[in-house]
Every structure is written in structure tokens, then in C-alpha cells.
Design goal:
globular, disordered C terminus, 15 helices, single chain, mainly alpha
């Protein structure tokens, strides 16, 4: 962990503790005690969301080397665990998942292209989910800042559209090619390697049915995350409807993504739950307890995911949790 990552983690943790300390802690602990093991069940409800995202990603992989759904779900589990708990700016999980794909026999161009496209579609599907949540909030009579909403849409579309344009233009190969010229041809192998990735990415964007399927399954995965919120609030004794759960999940995901530099969105996520709770009329103690229950998910789901990642990396030629590797190591086949 870098010094900057440590400082960000400590700062986020301090902010989270400060925000929670301003609440009625006796009421918060009472709610958590009442919920008990139910919050563990709510945390486990994240598994369907990971499985849906795994299926979405699998649609982008060649059928002959595509891992089965349990294996893909394990890779998504490790990717989310690394991104959720470590100071890697939501990038380290992608690197870890790429390595696991390679260990399962997926060739470099296919693994790289599928990951790049999956991440890009993830940005667009999350934007769509956020818009659905804001629309539902408006229908429920909530106050929506239309200027802020418009800016968010514009930034999201610009980011997603920019990534799509870069990938379709083969910019990666062009940049490496330019560097190869500066290096007097010493990067020729890397240049050809990057061009193969660009070609695979361009071909993948041409598979419109797979792209649409990936988007829709990802969107379903985002929406499935509302089950965690619904169950947590049910066990906390403050049940809400499906619409409210979708609104909370969509907005908290938007907050967490915006705070990607903070490990686990520490502080930002807690503040988000308190703000969203106030927006929907939740008791502050309930909103604070909900924020704590989301951290319980980190312990129940993501901490074991980090352990699975360490074990997978230490296993020669192995894959992610529970499935042996099927192909060559990390070198190109």
C-alpha cells in the first residue's frame, strides 16, 4: 500500500467515524442488535448481483475458452473485493481479474478486449441505473437537482463515449507505436501485441448482440443490488418498498463511484447513506445503521474475496476460488 493510499484510507476512516459519531449511537447499536444475523443474510444477497455481472462479462468472451458461470462469478468476486477494500482507484481489481482470466486459458487479446469493453459498458449501465433511480425519486416527489443531474449525465456520457471512441479508434496501438519510434524500434514486440488487442477490441464492439446483452445483464446486476438494501432495512425494522430500495442503491452506487480514489469509498459512502436517508425521510439512526450494515458486507463478502485472490495467485497455474486453471500461465499461448 502506498503512502498516499494509507493517508486516503485513514482520512476516509476518520470522516466515516466522525459522521457516525454525530448520530445517536445508542439507537444505532440497538437497531444493529435487533437486526442481528439478518444483516449477514443481507450481505450475502450481494451474490446474485455478482453472478449477473459475471454472466454479462462472459458474453464478451469467446465460447471455446469462456469459463463457466461459477468460475466467472469467482473472478468478479475477486475483482470487486480488490477494488472495494484496497487503495487501487478501482483499477487493481481489473488487473487481478485479467490475470485470473489468463490463468483459465483465455488468450491475451480476448481477455484484454473483454475487460476493456466490460468496464466501459459498466460505466454506461451504472449511468442508466442512476438515471432510473433519480427518475423514481422524482416520481416519489423527491427534490431532484436538475442542473446537477444534467451535469452528471453529460459527464457520464462523455466518459463512456470517450472510452468507446478510444477503443474503436485503436488508440492504444497507435500510442505504443509512437513510443516504439522514439525507442528506435526496441518496442516492436509490444507494438504488435497492442495492435492485436486493438483489433480484438474493435471486433468485439462489432458484436452488437453481445454488447447489448452485456449492458442489459449489467443493468440487471445493478438493480439486483437493491435486494441488499431491502433486506437490511427489513431486518433493521424500517422496511421500505422496492422503489425506495432501488433509489437508495442507485444513488449510493453513484456516490461510491464518484469517490473511487478513497479505499472502499470510506467516509463518502457513510455521508451518502445519511444524505439519501434524509432525502427519503429515513430516521438518521436507521440511515447510520444501514451504512454500518453495508460495511458488514465488506467483511462477509469482500474480505474472503481478498483471501481467495491471494490463494489463487499463489497456486501455480491455478484459477480463482474453487476451480483449477485450464490453460497456460500468464504468457501468451
Amino acid at each position: 500500500m502506498t503512502r498516499g493510499g494509507i493517508l486516503l484510507a485513514l482520512g476516509g476512516l476518520a470522516l466515516a467515524l466522525l459522521l457516525l459519531a454525530q448520530q445517536d449511537l445508542s439507537a444505532v447499536w440497538r437497531l444493529l442488535g435487533t437486526a442481528g444475523f439478518g444483516l449477514v443474510l443481507a450481505a450475502l444477497a450481494h451474490i446474485p448481483s455478482m453472478a449477473l455481472n459475471a454472466h454479462a462479462w462472459a458474453l464478451l468472451l469467446p465460447g471455446r475458452t469462456r469459463p463457466a458461470l461459477p468460475g466467472m462469478t469467482a473472478i468478479v468476486w475477486i475483482r470487486e473485493s480488490v477494488n472495494g477494500l484496497l487503495p487501487v482507484a478501482r483499477i487493481g481489481g481489473e488487473v487481478a481479474s485479467y490475470r485470473l482470466l489468463r490463468r483459465r486459458g483465455v488468450r491475451v487479446p480476448a481477455a484484454s478486449a473483454s475487460l476493456l469493453v466490460d468496464v466501459t459498458i459498466g460505466i454506461l449501465s451504472q449511468l442508466a441505473f442512476a438515471l432510473i433511480g433519480l427518475g423514481l425519486l422524482a416520481l416519489e416527489g423527491g427534490t431532484v437537482g436538475w442542473v446537477g443531474l444534467g451535469l452528471s449525465i453529460g459527464l457520464g456520457l462523455a466518459l463512456g463515449g470517450g472510452l468507446v471512441a478510444v477503443q474503436r479508434a485503436g488508440l492504444f496501438g497507435r500510442v505504443v507505436g509512437a513510443l516504439n519510434k522514439v525507442a528506435a524500434g526496441r518496442l516492436s514486440a509490444l507494438t504488435e501485441h497492442s495492435r492485436r488487442i486493438d483489433r480484438a477490441t474493435l471486433l468485439l464492439w462489432g458484436r452488437r448482440r453481445a454488447i447489448l446483452g452485456c449492458f442489459l445483464w449489467q443493468l440487471a446486476g445493478w438493480m439486483a443490488g437493491a435486494l441488499e438494501i431491502w433486506l437490511a432495512l427489513y431486518f433493521l425494522g424500517a422496511p421500505v418498498g422496492v422503489v425506495e430500495a432501488l433509489v437508495i442503491e442507485s444513488l449510493i452506487q453513484m456516490v461510491s463511484s464518484a469517490a473511487f480514489l478513497l479505499p472502499g469509498a470510506l467516509g463518502a459512502q457513510e455521508g451518502g447513506f445519511l444524505a439519501i436517508g434524509a432525502l427519503l425521510g429515513l430516521d438518521p439512526a436507521v440511515a447510520a445503521a444501514l451504512a454500518v450494515s453495508r460495511r458488514l458486507r465488506d467483511l462477509v463478502i469482500f474480505l474472503p474475496g481478498l483471501l481467495a485472490w491471494v490463494l489463487a495467485e499463489r497456486r501455480p497455474g491455478g484459477g480463482a476460488a474453487g476451480e483449477p486453471g485450464k490453460g497456460p500461465g500468464l504468457r501468451e499461448a
